[in-house]
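Hello again,

I reread your note about wanting to compare the complex against the isolated chains. To keep things tidy I'm splitting this into two emails, and this first one only covers the full assembly. Below are the input lines as submitted, including protein chains and any nucleic acid or small-molecule components. They are followed by the predicted structure of everything together. The single-chain runs will come separately.
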Amino acid sequence: MRTESVVVRYLALRAAPFIQLYALYVLGHGEDGPGGGFQGGVIFSASFVLLALAHGWPFGRQQVNEKVADILAPTGALIFAGIGVLTMLAGGAFLEYGAFAKAGAEDPEAARLAAQHIGLIGIEAGVMITVAASMAILFFEMSRPPRESKGNDA
Amino acid sequence: MVMESLLLLILVGLAIAAVRSRDLLVATSILGAYSLVIALLWCVMDALDVGFTEAAVGAGISTVLMLAAINRIGRREATAQGPVLKPTLFSMQQRREQLQQPDTRRPRLIKVGAVVLCLLVAMALLYGAQDMPQVGDPDAPANSNPDVAQRYIRDAMHPDASKNIVTTVLGDYRGYDTMGETVVIFTAALCVLLLLRQAPMRREDEGGTDAD
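Full-complex prediction:
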């Protein structure tokens, strides 16, 4: 899977950073518009898919370290669950982000909503990390070229 | 309404084209277009978050994953002309006829029965859909429950709350479900990793080709 077209290869290389930037935009604006962690993660991994399609599987694989992706995939889910545990430690229910609010705030309702924003951003980031790493793993494992000679990958 | 009907008609056309295509690469490409039309349909119905997800996942990543699978299994669907038929079960005359007309292998009764069954199920679904509320009907039971939907909408309209109700529901009211969804994605990646990642060969000196 490697295209010979110089135009496609060049554009893929130049578009990838912007796709990743857009993924972060989608993550950051998920609270105020359509989008969020899931979509952001998928778009982020799509940049690596584009690179692998245009420049070949080995080049794409080089951009996504295998071990890093393997570690990041469960890390995102753990961030999500960890925020839930933190809210419990702060005295609330599981994933009750309002528990992060300071007790002696002037306006308890505003403090609760501000804490909710923080919690939402945290879990969305966790979702994005898991989804981006998982999609990268899914793509690179499913499209792995058959081994031609012995021991050419480690 | 016109827009939705047009998109639904395109959907039906794309679905028939995908089913009729014997080339899996063509069928996959058509399914990608199908997902994109569904994404447009969600946007027409004001479900922007769903449309966004459908475009990114359905038209993007899913299509690529299916292409990767085709890369492994080959792009041609098996036909009756392949090695499916055992020559010993058929006389040469029958086999020659079947080779000339590969699609008439199934008995007519099964074909007619399938059509009748599909029509019956379609009629049952249409009958059941008559009782469904209109899209976005404020009086529908799902939207008028004062303790669930009404409360979500009222609380999410607070000026300091996040402006996207979908995010509020997914992350806040249904945070536990969203966590499960994230774990499901991770589990899928884990299963593919365990099944497909080839372990580095350690027993090369024994001369075995155990990797395949």
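For quick reference: Chain B is about 65% helix and 0% strand.

B.
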